[in-house]
Known about the structure:
By secondary structure, this protein is an alpha+beta fold. Helices cover 26% and strands 29% of the residues. It folds into 2 domains: 52 residues; 163 residues, no CATH class. It is built from 2 helices and 13 strands; from the N terminus they run αβββαββββββββββ. The strands form 3 sheets. Strands 3-4-1-6-7-13-10-11 form an 8-stranded antiparallel sheet, with helices on one face. Strands 2-5-8 form a 3-stranded antiparallel sheet, with no helix packed on it. It has a two-stranded antiparallel ribbon with strand order 9-12.
Amino acid sequence: MSVGSGGGSGTSMLLILSAIDLLSSALICGFLLFVTLVGADTSEARTNSDANGTGDGVTLIEIISRDGQAALKKRAPENTSVGPAEGAVEQSFFGATQLSNNGYLIPADIPSMTVENPGEMAIRVYSPGKEAIEIFFRCVPDAGPILMVLNPLTFPAACEHQAAGDANPKMSAGQTLYLRDGEAFPDLPKPENGDLRHGVRFKLDRDLHVPVGVSIWGVTL
């Protein structure tokens, strides 16, 4: 009897150990599957985010000016606000403590927009899958409309320059500057490739001031 009893106990123990082993294997397999699926979802989400920029194929445009008159033609802004200049370049360019901001969401299938009452303004463009760029305009107050080509993002044509009372906005070493092709600007480093069509990209290796004769230029955000 004792032998039989011992054999039964041994068999039961083996069965219990086998069950634990199977359960452990199932848990490990389940965990690995979970990690694989989550990793795939995360990778796909990151890929979509990189491809789309804003994540939804929409271009965000913000038009900044002192009086809020600069705006997109035949399109009401989704958001309007008044606040301080963002960053030293805007502060130096506008020389104002409070600025107006008109914000627009432009579907990716709209290739261009027209800006009315440009004058002295800045346009921030957040295009899907591209680096964010802020373009500064110093045009005469009665300058005509400016065409903004969004796809592909294109440097606008130069406007009639506002000469009186110009300031020289300061750019710091390490910032990225965009100029129109052929624009005169001394002491610049070697140009780089960039996202802005008809624009030349420079990574500044020293502090410098934007010459007063430059009517349109841009920086990366």
